[in-house]
Amino acid sequence: MSSPRKSASPAAVADATTPPSLAQDGGQPNIDVDDDGDSAFADGDNFSETTSLASSLIRGHIMNGRKYSSLRSDYWGPSDESQFESMDAGHYNLLTLDSNQPEPLFRSPVVEPQNILDIGTGPGTWAVDVADKYPEAVVYGVDLSPPPVTWMPPNCHLQVDDVLEDWTFRENFDLIHMRLMLGAFTDNEWRDVYRKAYDNLKPGGWIEQVELDVRVMADDNSLRPDTLIAEWGNNFLGCSERAGRPLDTQLTMKAKIEEAGFVDVQEHLYKCPIGGWPKNKVLKDAGRINFVQWTAGLEGWAMFLLTNWGSPEPWTADEVRVYVAKVREELKQPRLHIWHYTVDDEYGVANLNDRGLQFVLTY
Ligand SMILES: C[S@@+](CC[C@H](N)C(=O)[O-])C[C@H]1O[C@@H](n2cnc3c(N)ncnc32)[C@H](O)[C@@H]1O
């Protein structure tokens, strides 16, 4: 790793007008549409200064014009500039959705943390922001690929490693965080990761996981069933099933985390709008940022899975590019009131073995 990068302060997005309760504990009310507003387009300014890939330590593996980690050949996601832009937008999208929370960076009730681990840290944005905000803590981020950071706080350590290998951390953690690790592991690999997380947490420590549902939905008839977006989620759920690393992690992680010995989960459910169509100011901001996450991420989400596991047979890279271009055009339709689920689960801490579990599902 080289050249750490300074991440923008979460406060930049945390001061937006407080939304009505974004975590819907009961039913899922429709999000009010801003009839006067324009469309899905984000302003873009938030992300214009994003990434510059500085590392030559790990050159990665180039396939179909995208850069993948050379540590594993089975992980679907590229680690390159546009994917880091998408991941950064995902980070700010979630900070915006949680801007009414006392701590938008995580929901675990961790007080004065000393050691924090971010598994699959990607661009390291979450780890850097947490380290910045908690200077007394040491924050580790681990990923298969080097992050594109050019600055990081001295208490932040971003490492290139495979979490399926043995963990050699000297101290146990107060909080282990994972976000958007969907489709990274087989069922048995997930069990291995949760067991290691359990073994590497302090008594009373917390694990927090944020995952999204790849299916796109709408409460009204703005999403026609014959569109590519309407079928997007099922297309990729199918690919990931065939790959043996299902993308529906948000549905399966709870049972596996409990199986690892954790107790007391708390869960919250959100709707994440894509585009600036909601009336509510915070949801509008979040939707605009989420639109950037989607448009920057589309090709990277699609390329590996479709060229390896597409149906009825693996697609060519050009077929994927054409498909993605069409989906991107569909996303720009002005009256599309689409969202994907966000779930945030919390259970209280029990003292069975002095371990608390919080996992936050976002889908
Ligand atoms: C979709 S990205 C999410 C990044 C970040 N957590 C975020 O929310 O922006 C998933 C990350 O997990 C990393 N990853 C996948 N498998 C891994 C493994 N076995 N060990 C470490 N990192 C892994 C990938 O390299 C990728 O950067």
UniProtKB/TrEMBL annotation:
The lineage of its organism: Eukaryota, Fungi, Dikarya, Ascomycota, Pezizomycotina. Residues 1-46 are annotated as: Disordered. PANTHER family: 2-METHOXY-6-POLYPRENYL-1,4-BENZOQUINOL METHYLASE, MITOCHONDRIAL, METHYLTRANSFERASE. One of its GO terms (molecular function) is methyltransferase activity. SUPFAM superfamilies: S-adenosyl-L-methionine-dependent methyltransferases. This is Methyltransferase domain-containing protein. Gene3D superfamilies: Vaccinia Virus protein VP39. InterPro entries: SAM-dependent_MTases_sf.
